Amino acid sequence: MLDRVRVVLVNTSHPGNIGGAARAMKNMGLTQLVLVDPERYPDPNAVARASGADDVLEQAHVVATLEEAIADCVLVMGTSARDRRIPWPVVDPREAAEKVMDQLGDDDSAQIALVFGREDSGLTSDELQRCQFHVHIPSNPEFSSLNLAAAVQVVAYELRMLSLQRQGQPTKMHKLETTNRQNEIPATAQELERYYEHLQQVLVEIGFLDPEKPRQLMPRLRRLYGRVRINQVEMNILRGILTETQKAIGVQATGERRR
Amino acid sequence: MLDRVRVVLVNTSHPGNIGGAARAMKNMGLTQLVLVDPERYPDPNAVARASGADDVLEQAHVVATLEEAIADCVLVMGTSARDRRIPWPVVDPREAAEKVMDQLGDDDSAQIALVFGREDSGLTSDELQRCQFHVHIPSNPEFSSLNLAAAVQVVAYELRMLSLQRQGQPTKMHKLETTNRQNEIPATAQELERYYEHLQQVLVEIGFLDPEKPRQLMPRLRRLYGRVRINQVEMNILRGILTETQKAIGVQATGERRR
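Output (structure tokens, whole complex):
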């Protein structure tokens, strides 16, 4: 669906920012880039900063006016850093993503534009009035102007987050899936109990725990290990450490203890 | 609270990215930057890309090792683009922000580090193992590596969003507050009805609406205007247009109609 969302950059001064925007777009799964009257384009700096998002740059449309860039769009959102006299519906990037995804879902052919202004002066009042919504990134009021590619990154990130969520896809890698299944299986209560028994035994053997004056040592250790949800692999490691400790201090580990 | 969150950049190759990261930080209200063994720093490219976040650069600490950079931190989060063999708790940037804000809230003196790796190869396995959590930005699996400053921007943005929300502050500008109150006051049902009467009259006068065959014209117009929640100022404009239309076609507006 995100292929129906275009990023429109108006009168960009620095070609490096065009490249940075293209990279941010591709990182977030956006592909449609429209450049309205860029100052310098094509330019090797755009390619350098795109860092491999060359396909987004190559497919970019260069047009003369914002009007052309958004002509077929049913939803146009313009980013705005400054407070303006004309009141207008303002959304933050998260709300903007909701409006975009809602529109894409409601209308199978909807084309949508996210419009970003000039590095130094943003969008003009006339340009902002062509947008149904103004997107404001909640920046530090004393230092509010984001780099152009950074602004594209934030809005595209919110779109991707919501798009993944609505598709029921995870927003993060599932590292566990790629690894040994034993890393995923938590230790059972019984295994934990056997570990605590073994641990207590070793603490006595090394002279750290006095059975006559146990204080709160074992409860504290239980609390610690209980918090971390030990898995099978970790359990084996911890038991192994205890056994090796016993060997090192010359205690014969019994079958009972190592059960 | 965000002054207790430091951004740690490890072995950064391009000083421009250090500047870009500093700008993104200041935009989002972060100030503490720590550079672990940067390749070229200080450097004029860092200052250029910081675009006014010079104070963040000037206060940046340069240290030799990651260990030094995070020594006093109770929570260390490292960004990771790649899937790794060692399973580790992975969070997306939104969850990372929650963990950071929770920790800041629970512990008044907590220092927290957000660690970002090298442009080409990220953080090493050893470095990632010094982090309690790995932050993964949900990027396009086929083009997953964000620009360093863009990654800082995304994580800092999530922190600022959550920080504003928890403080009960708006995440967007309130443009309406700065403008004429009349723009905020919606038109009443009665005012709308008078407008529809006036509109219908004018549509008849200009010959667009045939009272004998009204079709669905007025219901359609009511639906349209009903959707947009017209305010007082807009109402006055719309009524003014009707009156001027009547003048232009030579109809004397009556007191009744303009009530």
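The beta strands of chain A are 5-10, 32-36, 61-63, 75-79, 90-91, 112-116, 133-135.
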